[in-house]
Write a structure and sequence with these properties.
42 strands; 32% strand; elongated; 447 residues; single chain; 14-stranded parallel beta sheet; mainly beta
Length: 447
Amino acid sequence: MIRSLAAVGAATLLSSFVHAPAFAAIVSVSSASSLQAAIDSARPGQRLVLADGVHVAEPIKITRSGITVAAQTVGGTVFTSGGFQLGNVQHVTIEGFVFDGTSSLDVPAEAQATRITRNTYNGNKSGASLSVSADDVEIDHNTFSNRTNEGVYLQITGPGSDIAKRSHIHHNYFYNHQFSGANGGESIRLGYSHKQSKSANAIVEYNLFEKADGDSEAISVKSSDNTIRYNTIRNSKGYIVLRHGNRSTVEGNLLFNSGIRFHGNDHKIYNNYVENTRDRAMVFGSGSEADSGPTSKEHDRPDRVTVAFNTLIGTGAVVDSDGGNFKPKDCVLANNIIKGSSGGVVSMHSGSVVKYEGNVIWGGTGGSMPSSGYKSVDPKLVKDANGLFRLTSGSPAIDASVGTYSYVTRDFDPQARSGKPDVGADEYTSSALRKPLTKADVGPSAP
């Protein structure tokens, strides 16, 4: 069970009031002005509830820590202007509102350990729909939908040159970003190029992205030491992209007509399932410089990146590389199932330094991958009831991995890998556990 940072903090604050006079745990109000008055006198542990309806008001200022400000019913309380302004507070939860029109809610650096949950951000805003600058913020079960202008749905930033730390982004629904420009319409931008060396230590997990078409990057990581896992992306122009920064993990994501691209150093990319009939499934980014400086906006050469135990299905060059002058260096492509339709399934530019081992390919040739790095054999993949190609009994990928990758202890379900791990994202079993996320699993109404 996930227990929010805001809830833990509110309980701690509330404990200091156990001997104080009794006060109402829930305070219901009918208007934005009444909500402002209730907030101004609130105590830690109180839940302040605004009635359903459309509210046009100046921003409501939250000046008390340890409180929850909630809609009467999730999705029933709509702001078309105003919204909320968080002050120097901690452990505040904002729950269940709809932000339309010019209304807004951002999390400034001083509002630490805030929780933003079960809200809806609709339509076009100036800049990000939600910008987070504080540490230890939880963003969960929200919907971000229907933008057509430049700007991102969710921006993780931070004060000055620093980065917001330990953001936990989970069970959100990112839908229908249709900005038609060349750049600037990401669903999530995790950092900035000039903050790439900062360790954000964010976790982005169990989110669903559909029609993430505002940018070629649905999740754009521009900071270091992050974990991107168990997300589902469907029918989107946007990929998971490690654009800047080092030492991030991309694990167990399910991508359909999307893919993964990376720059930077020392990443681990494993247990991902990528089925892309439109374009490349895995892209080793080349660089316009060998190693990015702390403020560089250029493409960094990937160094020491491991791509292992993924199932990659596509057409043409399923595993590809970009055309920059600085080629991948000391990277690894190991124990992946790579299924194409014709031609070379791997296309790595000359000058790339990549170790290849234990891969299984089918539906094409090895391309630029040396014959020592793969076996060309039918992995016997069969699509299960949830639409995922899995290993079947007798597959030559079973117990066939090569080398030691001690951090790969489970597969994409996730279930434990036993004995000698199987090649690809799936460890063979008779009981499949994983299914792609749907709208019922994420957003304001999900469990």
